[in-house]
Amino acid sequence: MKVLVISPQPVFQPRGTPLSVYYRTLVTAELDADIDLLTYGEGADIDIRRVRIVRIPRFRVLGNVKVGPSMLKLFLDVWLFFKTVGLLLTRKYDFVHAHEEAVFFCVLLKPLFRFRYVYDMHSSLPQQLKSFEFTRSKLIIWIFEALEKKALRSADAVITICQDLYDYAEPILQGRCPHVMIENSLLDPVQLITPRDESKEERVAIPLPGDHRLVVYAGTLEPYQGIELLLEAFAALATRLDDVSLVIAGGKPAQIDHYRAMAQDLDINARCHFTGSISRAAAMHLNGQASVLVSPRTVGGNTPLKVYEQLASGIPLVATDIHSHTQALNEDVAFLVRPDADSFSDGLLRALTSQDQARKKVKNALALYAEKYSRETYVGKMKIILEAVDGCVA
Q1: pLDDT digits over 223-281, tens only?
Q2: Domains along the sequence of the chain with CATH
Q3: Cα angle for residues 394, 102, 218 (degrees, 5° grid)
């Protein structure tokens, strides 16, 4: 089968949605598909057999694509739309796999080109407009709500990534097409055509006492990730345990400068290290050195991709008890705490000192991952989607 995948994201960069696009594309190719992956000019080329990367221009002068809605994304999506039209005019595809707002292209173009499409719903787009404070216009938000409902009802198959989105989409779909929740749970190494030299990057130099236990966070440093909460919680923990250090991996230079200054103000800079942006392999190696992993997110509906990696890590996890976490986590598998510094600090203390409890949670977490989020489960769900739109999946 021949598939057009449209991703309005910088593929590849080591963050949530590009990782999701990578794994969806990887498994689709493994299931006997030849793929054109249409994406932004920004990002590293992935190396997946039977996948051809098609890019719009880079527009370096406009800067990099940030997480969430932006005027730059809107500009790039116009280019992506016309490139989509060009591909549909010159090539024949069995179906289109549209990620995020690219589904709006499909709503418009499906009657003209008579293709089937999969809507890969990573988030509710009108909710994103509100969450990232892109606009307060009720009219614009209403338009996106109407477009999103139209996109769902016109789709031939729908993928949602967490229970919250599944519950949102299901009443709109009303059984019109197959709808499968496929969590972003794969952990395969990302293969790039021109890879960074990860052999040099797998081990991150950490200028902290070698006998210290490590609390590790790896991810973006966007405000909703709760890094301020984490730093405040660690400052409280540091007064109770003197053999623990904090490592924060990821983020942009300006974000790191902001949080480093906060660590200085909290007087924990000697026990807090920021690695900056590192490869996925390096992040996984760093997680393996941790005594405790953390997900301090304070707001959000979608389950963070890193949670699935943390479940499979064999390391105790401390996470806030907000909805984006409790969709995938419970007290049997993680130390769940309220999203405030005192509660998070107490959770860290329990994870570091209650060894029997930590071991039990780790055992349960590994069992949960194997049961619900394994590669076999992921591939099986993708087969359901592909059979719905193509009907001849191996």
Answers
A1: 999 999 999 999 999 999 999 999 999 999 999 999 999 999 999 999 999 999 888 88
A2: 2-185+374-389 (3.40.50.2000), 198-372 (3.40.50.2000)
A3: 80
